[in-house]
Amino acid sequence: MPSKPSPTRLRYNKLIFAGLKALSWSKDGAQFQGLLQGAGASKKADGSFSMSSLGVAKLMMIFDALKKAGFKPKSKSAASGASDWRKPRIDKITAIWIQLHDEGVMFDRSEKAMMKFCAAITGKAKLQWVTSHDLNRCIEVLKDKAKHAGVKLRD
Prior knowledge:
The protein has 155 residues and is mainly α. It contains 7 helices and no strands.
C-alpha cells in the first residue's frame, strides 16, 4: 500500500496545478512536460512525465519555475478577500515588543527576535500559524515581562 503524501507535497501539488491554470498551461503541454523532464521526473507508459515521481525539493523547483513564467500565487486571505483576524493582535505584540525594547527590557528590537520569542511560547515558527489562544499567551507573557520590569504599557 503506498504511503500517504506529506502535507507539504500536497500543498506544492495544489500550487503547481493552480499555476498551470493561471498560466493556461496544460499538464500534458510541452512547457510543463519540459519542466518535469528537466526536474528528472520518470517517464510514464504513455510517454509523458510523472509529477508523482518527484520529491518535494523538485516540486519546489517546478513551482519556482512557474513563478518565473509569470504565475503570481495569492495567499488564502488575499484570494478570499477576507482580512487576517490575527493582524490586530500581532500589531499589539509588536507594539509591546517595541516599547519593551525602548525601555531596555528587550535587547533586540528586530521582528526576527520577536518571532523567535513568540515561537518559544507557541511552538510555531510564524505568528500567521498560531491560534487565538497562542496570540493571547504571547500578549500576556509580554505584559508579565513589562510588569516585572516596572514598565507601564501604553494603550
